[in-house]
Amino acid sequence: MGLVIEDDQDIRELVRTVLTQAGFDVTVANSGAEGVKAARTLNPDVITLDLGLPDIDGFEVSRQIREFSDAYIVMLTARAEELDTLIGLESGADDYLTKPFRPRELRARIAAMMRRPRSLPDAGETAPVPDRPAEAVSASGNGQYSHNGLDLSYASRSVSVDGQELNLTRTEFELLYALLEAGRTVRTKSDLVRRLRDEDYDVGSYISEADERSVEVHMGNLRKKLGDSPQQPRWLQTVRGVGYRLAPVGR
C-alpha cells in the first residue's frame, strides 16, 4: 500500500503513477491532516510526503505519523536548503528528493527501501548471517549481536540497551546492524548510503554530499536514542572525515 500526501495535483498524479507502476495500491491525500488520518487507517508500506502542505507542514505530518507508523517516508521538497533536509530527516523521514525529481529515481529509491524488511520474517525464515563474527562483537548467529550492553536481533528486528527495548526506525536499525556486522572496521558514509540503497557493492551510482549528510543525521538520531556520547562513545565511534565504527569493548 502506498500513500501520496501532496497538494499539487500534477505532482500528486505523477507520484501516484510511479507508485502504481511499482505495484502499489495507492491512496492520495491533498492535506497534512487528511494524510495523517489516511496513514492511521490504511497502515501503508510507503508514504511520499510534500514538505509545503497548505494546513500542516510536512515536518509536523512526519512527526505525527511516526507516533504510530513504521512506514517508509520519502519527503518531496522544492526547498534545496540543507537545513530543511536535515529537519525533515530528524522529524522521521527515511529519505528525501528535491523537486523537480526524476520519476525513475523515485521508483528506484522506493524499490531499495522495500527490499529491507518492514516487519518480522515469516515463521521458519532465517535472517542473513555474516560470513564471520565481527571483531569486538559477540555474534551468536542468525543475526544476533551483543556489544557493551546492546543486544540486536535481526530476526525480530529488535534492539535493547541494558535490557530496555528501543524504538528505532528501520533506517536507524539498518545502520546499527551494518556497524555491528563490521565490528571495528570503519564503514564509510558512502558505504552506508549504498547499504541503505541495498547495493551490496559499489556499482558506480552517484552519491552526493547531501546523501552522506543524511547518513550523519540518521546516525545522530540513533545516538540520541541509544543515549550515546560522541565524545566518549559506548557504541558508535565517529572516524572524522571517513565514517563510523563500533567503539571498543568495555567503553
TrEMBL record:
Residues 142-248 bind DNA. CDD domains: REC_OmpR, trans_reg_C. The modification 4-aspartylphosphate is found at residue 50. Residues 1-114 form the Response regulatory domain. GO terms for molecular function: phosphorelay response regulator activity; transcription cis-regulatory region binding. It holds the Pfam family Trans_reg_C. PROSITE patterns: OMPR_PHOB, RESPONSE_REGULATORY. Gene3D superfamilies: 3.40.50.2300, 6.10.250.690, Winged helix-like DNA-binding domain superfamily/Winged helix DNA-binding domain (1.10.10.10). Residues 117-144 are annotated as: Disordered. GO terms for biological process: regulation of DNA-templated transcription. Residues 142-248 form the OmpR/PhoB-type domain. SUPFAM superfamilies: C-terminal effector domain of the bipartite response regulators, CheY-like. This is Response regulator. It comes from the Bacteria. GO terms for cellular component: cytosol; protein-DNA complex. Transmembrane segments: none annotated. SMART domains: REC (SM00448), Trans_reg_C (SM00862). Keywords: DNA-binding, Phosphoprotein, Transcription, Transcription regulation, Two-component regulatory system.
